[in-house]
Write a structure and sequence with these properties.
globular; 4 helices; mainly alpha
Length: about 60
Amino acid sequence: MAKKRLYRSESDRMIAGICGGIAEVYDFDPTLIRLVTIVLIFSGLSPLLYLLAWIIIPSESEIG
């Protein structure tokens, strides 16, 4: 079984592709991941985490 790797999706993205990449790795609906992220951002919990993830997580084309 191939190990799935976290990356920023280039095919399923709204802003940076982070939610699309998480959804692909963990086999969730990307819309659900986006809704949870929006709730966390507006609660003040994750804006910095989202920006850090944008910087740290490689894009799909970078991992080949």
